[in-house]
Amino acid sequence: MTHHRELGPRTYNKVASTYYWPKMVHVIKEYVRTCDICQKAKPKRHGQRGFLESIPIPSQPFEVVTMDFIMDLPPSNGYNAILTIVDKLTKFAHFIPCTTSINEEETAKLFHAHIWTKYGLPRQVITDRDARWTGAFWEHLTSLVGVQRSLTTAYHPQADGQSEIMNQTLEIALRAFVFPSMDNWSDLLNDFSFAYNTMEHTSTGFTPSYLLLGFEPLRPSDLLASTSKSVARPTVEDPKAVNFAEMMQAIRSQAQDALKLAQAHMEDQYNKHHSYLDLQEGDLVMLNPHSLNLLRSQKGKGRKLQMKYDGPFEVSEKLSDVTYRLRIPASYKIHPVVNIAHLEPYHRDKDGDSRPKKHLNRADFEEVPEYEVEEIVDEKMVKKGQRKQRRYFTKFVGYSPEWNEWLSRQQLANAPRILKEWELKQRIPAPKKA
Question: How far is CA 391 from CA 385, 397, 403, 417, in A?
Fold first, then answer.
């Protein structure tokens, strides 16, 4: 039976033609299910694991914002990209035209003009790991003004579902509404922003504008439908004014229709392609090195024949429904907190190590940069066999405290300065109480 398909009539019939034993179907099915090589070699046919997970709800508008770019758009009035900024609480959004060549300082100026000077500084800014957010300028700036900089989960830029869905919704809506030449999208951004912010959001039941402002902004249709006679109508109509008003109303109406269509499409597509998997501490899983981009690019050198998964690795902690901490060997050089989208359950063989196993060659792995240690925040002694060893609770640059990890002295070999500073700090006696 090596190596096996999922148990079907052909597998069973092939064995049953020669052998029989009690509970034969169950035994064969379990044997195939726990085959190490089969689990790692075969692609999975289920939808992507995990649903979008919410970040804790802020207490006031623009306390937490998400920022992202939509890049490589057709040129429009000198722009070819959009900076999207969305308030986590109200869902109020800003769509700001820019270019793909925008740098850290230019991004900060847009942030200052559209967010800082209008709503004040947010406590937290959530972004992906784009170079504009991970560079020294943005890191130093947020530190100086006291803003917490949060980067999305390792190897999972979709960890902030708000930006991901917002960007795709806007792209779909623009695609349905722009000229055939696709060069007028920058002219439509303000109208799309108004349309989006005055539409009821499915997650809140209110419009972003109402949650932020406390009232619904009036639209031309609201005023025209009013029975109030307090505003005198002009006796002479200006055709240009009438045309402009009608055009603006039509644009906003069509923008809302396009956004509704995009939101319905996004919801349908996301639910269709995702499935739920619940893992617990102690479970064994396999990593997908292909989706994690851990393998070297070797065109024509047999990459298609490499194993689809590697492992197994033990789940050491469940951090949320979509993120898990794994016990990963140092040779991997990746952060041990991994999104469930890159994991598959591994079925343990009850016969132990008696059956053949196969692992990926470590020479095939990319040299992944190690995660930068920011500081040590605590230490403890743990028992290893007959001895006790010291562990250091370590915070990483660009990661919130939930990603902190207990590391050994050996694992901190590349952060000698931080380790020395911590040890010196521990030797200084606490000041005596008066």
Answer: 15, 19, 16, 17
